[in-house]
Fold each of these.
Amino acid sequence: MKRYFLIISLSILISCNDSNPTNTDKAYFTTWEHYLGDPERTHFSNLDQIDTTNVSQLKLAWSYKSGGLQEGRTTQIQTSPLMVENVLYGVNAAIELFAIDAKTGEEIWKFSPKSKDESGLGLNRGLNYWKSDGKEPSRIFFSSGPKLYAIKLETGQPISSFGDNGSIDLRKGLDRDPSKLSVVSNAPGAVFKNILIQGTRVGEGPGSSPGHIRAYNVLTGEILWTFHTIPQPGEFGYDTWPAEAYKKVGGANSWPGMALDNDQGIVYIPTGSAAFDWYGGDREGSNLFANSLLALNANTGERIWHYQMVHHDIWDRDLPAPPNLVDIVRDGETIPAVAQVTKSGHVFVFNRITGEPLFPIEEKAYPSSKLIGEKAFETQPLPLKPAPFA
């Protein structure tokens, strides 16, 4: 809850500073239109009216009870809200989408989807916003259960021309029987032009859904391209799995979100473990593209480069956060970089155009598995710099 209300406070401050920034020479961010601040996922705002000298003088301007907590139950809110044109969009504990006036806290509308995430954990981490092209209405993309909705900003109602009367079913388009799949989306993807690139959360046990990355037309919901994170015959990486593993193995999904370089048209996607998580006897090999950072052409889904942080994961070491796109100055040269953190507390840093590691990475020998039928991978990569943070 603390994280949620902290970000709401940030959004309030952005709204209050909209009309009268103290330094007109600076480009002030007066909106928060992207998950984690911007497509690069920098979590950054350059607002500076509130700092260590005056933060103690802050007083409560308003409060808003988003609701959704069932009596007798505990839950959590993980959503990082958006703020677009002085309206704050968030998700409550019942996975209901709401819009409130960021200046007053007054509720404008609330959308309660029919399709619910039955886990009861409130696991919706954020939203995607697409700005109107002048012909079609602006929209918020919001997920609940297996459905991804396109919601009109002004009314809070699904846009009927998108998908099936306003939503698409994330279980469809995975080359398996949708009725037997469990697929939700707990983190927003990335919007590039008129393309919504989306990851999913799937199960971690036997029979789990595959975690393929899909790109949708933001206006119609049509699938534009699919990247098979468990490669199919003829695709790069197919030989890192047993034959026909793509028909039964699941996971290798992108559940934490992704980052986007709009100028280069490259989307950077971290993936999770293959299922099931704690045993790999049925999937001998390095298992591309599980536990990998993917750099894909945002227009076509074509792989530009990849790096696998864990080979043949049997420790549930999926990548836990979107990568951060940063610039690194080395010997006077500015290098466009992408940094990816891991569950083990390491940071892998690459030239985000070429995929070249910017710091040495060593393949270290690891002990074999003691489980019957399982063969652990002989080595694992660990960056020598920067130092682990955990």
Amino acid sequence: MARWGMVIDLDKCNGCQACEVACRSENNIAVGGPQAASEHRTISWMQVRAEVEGEWPDIRSRFVPQPCMHCDRPPCTLVCPVQATSIDREGIVNQIYARCIGCRYCANACPYTVKFFNWHKPDHPASTEPGLNPDVSVRPVGVIEKCTFCSHRLQKAREMARVETRPLREQDFTTACADSCPTGAIVFGNLDDPTHRVAELSRDPRAFRLQEGLGTEPKVYYLSRRD
């Protein structure tokens, strides 16, 4: 059984935000516009956050891409009264939009602030509709949205492997953010398969996870910058 996870090398990330743009295009994420931005109601499943370390004048900045952590022990699943958010047997934390009632308990429980409430009805002009991904739903107003590790891509790869009567291979599938990263900073795969590169990188001496002390066991690892 797979346990899907991700490794992001902060030494390679240059903050270009290609991952953020690819995620937005792949998953039909609506653009909020100036009004939504002024109200802090924009949606971005993958966020590239800038952080500053040290004290002036000895400071260093770094970029930290942050998707959903897909925790092994996700607090968001414990508080949802209708089980709209749940973790599947392969470790992906799913969001069932048709079941979501918009109470936002899960967003409040998430310590990584990677869940977004859809405040406005998605506005996709007719000229952009042909560019929407038919494999991903367009969410209605009033639900929580989040990164899904591009599970629709994974499902396609599974179906192709089944048609060809072979096991799923590492090169069959990756997320949109990893696919678009020009520096190869993002690696996706099966954390429990030692032949997958992501499993090897997760054991690197530079590897760490955000807020590990909380006990949520995130499946997104980071590689710290080299001095």
